[in-house]
Write a structure and sequence with these properties.
Layout: H1 3-14, H2 17-23, H3 27-30, E1 32-35, E2 38-41, H4 49-61, H5 64-72, H6 87-90, E3 99-100, E4 103-104, H7 106-125, E5 137-141, H8 148-156, E6 165-169, H9 174-181, E7 189-194, H10 201-214, E8 223-227, H11 230-236, E9 243-245, H12 262-289, H13 296-310, E10 315-321, H14 328-340, E11 358-360, H15 372-377, E12 384-389, H16 398-417, H17 421-430, H18 435-444, E13 453-458, H19 463-484, H20 495-508, H21 519-530
Parallel strand pairs: 5-6, 5-7, 7-8, 8-9, 10-11, 10-12, 12-13
Antiparallel strand pairs: 1-2, 2-13, 3-4
Helix pairs in contact: 4-13, 7-12, 8-12, 8-14, 12-19, 13-19, 14-19, 17-18
This protein binds 6-O-phosphono-beta-D-fructofuranose.
The site of 6-O-phosphono-beta-D-fructofuranose (F6P) has 15 residues, from loops.
């Protein structure tokens, strides 16, 4: 399956991307695709026509089309947990049945969404709770997929906010709870406890402390739960009418489209929330119907595989030139690294190559003044994924948006072109530098260039476009998982640390011995207890 690409490795690693442009006048358009109002440019990578053909063949040989159909059809493709993978059903606004074990699941999803919308409207128009004061603030308590998705989306869609202010508590560190709740009034704050399993230690501890802050049991009337463990929400004391459930075939990191997105629905309203869903659904339809070469998620995935497997670059930077997408890199870290950071194939056999890229990033232009030094001159090449909107939301500040776009385009240009020593010398000579100083300084001003990047351009960051972008990345992760032959929908790797943390709680609380702990851990614990005051 991989041999054709493996054979290209040496050539691809030494190839000049600029020469690819010189050899092909049509490269800018030929290695770029447009669909659904998005433009994805991958011309500034070392992929040539033969490389692209080999990548597409790789996807075909991996059985992508059949596996994609199986996912949308509700087959149990999450084999290690015996579950279907149907987050796409949460954003399916059509009427055609989606079956799991022979049962249509769309009806239940719609009912829940209608109940969410009813409550959201009541909170937004002030008619909830029927007495007492109007809700001005909402606090979502959750972690991982029960935090990152809604937090990222709420931040991204700030221009569409016309509901209560949304806040997020995730960390078990009491500082998160304290600092978030400090400015809020418990009487006008709605608390959302978001946890798929309703067993997550951090979330339950935060929820209990938030309940105490809100006034104890009497305040449960201002609590909402989002979970697939509806019974456990009842045990916590949150009544059924304010529990929004979802099924176990929605993975935590894929759950923003359903109840876990309730804070987003409160912030932007049910109508705009549906636009977010329809953006996701439009990307689903594109993913299902476009040819592989014209398929945005497929090509995004294949470019990532080329950079990682053929060129040998283990990490990728996600660089949105959109301040409101500041949490997108963190969101994608969970999406990509929790999904594909695996060591074994679906059948349990060890993977023959390292799957799962290291994903990191920050919005531009801030990153330029922090880590871009390494990206431009460091000895490890980091493929960069730029994204930018053609239009901002601040027409009165259009100068800012022009500067943002200029910076975004300049970075990919600089990564590609670099600067030769001759050019560096000429610049310095023009400033009057000469002799040994010139020899020394010019070396520091050389940029090797030939560093790969892609650019995703969208019109404007609206609910619809955000839905498209999130679904685009979800499907990218799916395609990569299919090609590596792994299960992108479980996360056993997070369990061991959780088990050990639970085991250590009694020892940290003082008293109990940390049974079985390594000598270094025992030493650290003793030191901490000694200094805990
Ligand atoms: O620890 C990892 C994880 O299970 C994620 O997959 C999940 O998004 C997060 O914890 C939170 O889980 P829950 O929504 O069940 O509280």
């Amino acid at each position: 399956m991989w041999s054709q690409l493996d054979d290209m490795r040496k050539d691809a690693q030494t190839r000049s991307i600029s020469e690819l442009f010189e050899a092909d006048d049509a490269r800018a358009n030929g290695f770029c695709l447009q669909g659904e109002g998005l433009l994805f440019d991958y011309a500034k990578t070392s992929i040539d026509a033969a490389g692209r053909a080999a990548l597409i063949k790789l996807a075909q040989d991996a059985g992508l089309a059949a596996k994609r159909a199986a996912m949308f059809a509700g087959e149990k493709i999450n084999e290690t947990e015996g579950r279907a993978v149907l987050h796409t059903a949460l954003r399916n606004l059509e009427d055609e049945a989606v079956l799991v074990d022979g049962q249509d699941v769309l009806e239940g999803i719609k009912d829940t969404r209608t109940r969410m919308a009813d409550l959201a409207r009541a909170i937004r128009d002030g008619s909830f709770p029927g007495h007492g004061q109007r809700i001005t603030d909402v606090v979502n308590i959750g972690i991982g997929g029960s935090d990152l998705g809604p937090l990222m989306a709420v931040m991204a869609l700030a221009p569409f906010h016309d509901g209560p202010r949304c806040h997020f508590i995730s960390n078990v560190d009491g500082a998160d709870l304290t600092d978030t709740l400090a400015p809020l009034d418990p009487e006008t704050t709605l608390v959302i406890v978001a946890s798929k399993t309703f067993t997550t230690q951090e979330t339950l501890l935060n929820a209990r402390s938030a309940l105490a802050w809100a006034g104890g049991e009497a305040a449960l009337g201002r609590f909402v739960a989002l979970s697939s463990a509806v019974d456990k929400c009842g045990e916590f004391g949150i009544p059924e009418e304010r529990v929004f459930g979802f099924e176990d075939w929605v993975g935590g990191r894929y759950s923003v489209w359903g109840p876990i997105g309730f804070s987003l629905m409160l912030a932007i309203g049910p109508t705009d929330f549906e636009k977010f869903l329809s953006g996701g659904q439009a990307m689903d339809r594109h993913f299902q119907s476009a040819t592989l070469q014209n398929n945005l998620p497929v090509m995004l995935a294949l470019v990532g595989i080329w950079n990682q497997q053929v060129c040998g670059h283990p990490s990728r930077a996600v660089l949105p030139y959109e301040q409101r997408l500041a949490r997108l890199p963190a969101y994608l870290q969970q999406l990509e690294m929790e999904s594909n950071g695996k060591g074994v194939a679906m059948d349990g056999s060890p993977l023959s190559r390292v799957a799962g890229p290291l994903v990191w990033g920050e919005p531009g232009t801030n990153g330029q003044h922090a880590f871009y030094q390494l990206i431009h001159q460091g000895q490890q090449v980091v493929p960069c994924e730029f994204m930018v909107g053609a239009r901002g939301h601040e027409p009165e500040l259009s100068e800012h948006h022009k500067a943002l776009i200029a910076n975004c385009l300049a970075q990919s240009e600089a990564l590609l072109k670099g600067r030769s020593e001759a050019e560096a010398r000429a610049q310095l000579e023009a400033k009057g530098v000469s002799g040994s100083k010139l020899d020394q300084l010019s070396k520091h001003r050389v940029f090797t260039g030939n560093r790969p990047s892609t650019t995703l351009v969208y019109g404007q960051l609206t609910p619809f476009v955000l839905g498209q972008i999130v679904a685009l990345y979800e499907h990218r992760v799916f395609v990569e998982g299919v090609i590596y032959g792994i299960n992108s929908f479980d996360q056993w790797g997070v369990e061991l640390g959780k088990e050990l943390a639970n085991g250590l709680v009694p020892a940290v609380s003082g008293g109990a011995q940390p049974g079985g702990a390594n000598a270094s851990t025992v030493m650290l614990l003793e030191h901490i207890l000694e200094h805990s005051g």
